[in-house]
Amino acid sequence: MRSQGFAMPASSAEALRRAVERLYEALGGGDGEVVLSLLAPEFEGRIAAGMPAGAGVHRGAEAMVRDGWWSIGRAFKVVAEPQEWVPCADGRLLVTGAYRGVARGTSARVDARFAHLWSGGAGGLTALEQWTDTALWRVALSEGGDR
C-alpha cells in the first residue's frame, strides 16, 4: 500500500529528477513500499515490446510494480545505472543509461543501454516509457548467453 505521501508540482524539473533518482534506488534495493509511495495511483508504464519479462503497458501503480518491474526482477538481477538526465520542454524527463546485471536462470551478463521518458504530477510519478535493446536481454536468458 501507499504508506508515504508524495507530491510534486507538475512543472518542477528538479522535483521530478529527485523522485526518479529515489525510484531507481528503491527498485535497485527491491523496496516495493518506497516504489509505490513514489507512483501516482494512475501510473502508466510502457515496457519495451520484445522484453522477455514485463513487456507491454501496465496501468496503475500496483500493476506496474507487480507485472512490470517485479516480473523483470524475477528473471534478472539488474540495476538501472542512469548516466544522463535531460529535462524536456514539456516538463517530462529523459534519462539514459545502462542496465547491468545477470539473468537469474543462466548467470549470463546483461549490459543493455536504456532510455526512460518520465512524467510526474501532483500525485507522484505518472508515466514511464522504456526503450532498450531487448535482444540483449533475450540472449542472457538463453543457454548460449555471454557468461
Characterise this structure.
This is 2-(1,2-epoxy-1,2-dihydrophenyl)acetyl-CoA isomerase. GO terms for molecular function: isomerase activity. It comes from Conexibacter arvalis. InterPro entries: NTF2-like_dom_sf, SnoaL-like. With 147 residues, this protein is α+β, with helices and mostly antiparallel strands. It has one domain: Nuclear Transport Factor 2, Chain: A (Roll), CATH 3.10.450.50. The chain has 4 helices and 6 strands, in the order ααββαββββα. Helix 1 runs antiparallel to helix 2. The longest helix has 17 residues, at 13-29. The termini are far apart.
Summed up:
It contains four helices and six strands, in the order H-H-E-E-H-E-E-E-E-H.
For the record, the CATH architecture stands as Roll
Helix content: 25-40%
Number of helices: 4
Outline: globular
Q: What is the makeup of the main sheet? A: 6 strands, mixed
CATH class category name: Alpha Beta
Mean pLDDT figure: 92
Strand order, largest beta sheet: 2-1-6-5-4-3
Keywords:
147 residues, alpha+beta, Nuclear Transport Factor 2, Chain: A, six-stranded mixed β-sheet, 6 strands, globular, disordered N terminus
How are the SSEs placed, and which strands pair?
Elements (H helix, E strand, L loop, with lengths): L12 H17 L2 H7 E9 L8 E4 L1 H15 E12 L5 E11 L5 E13 L2 E9 L1 H8 L6
Helix pairs in contact: 1-2
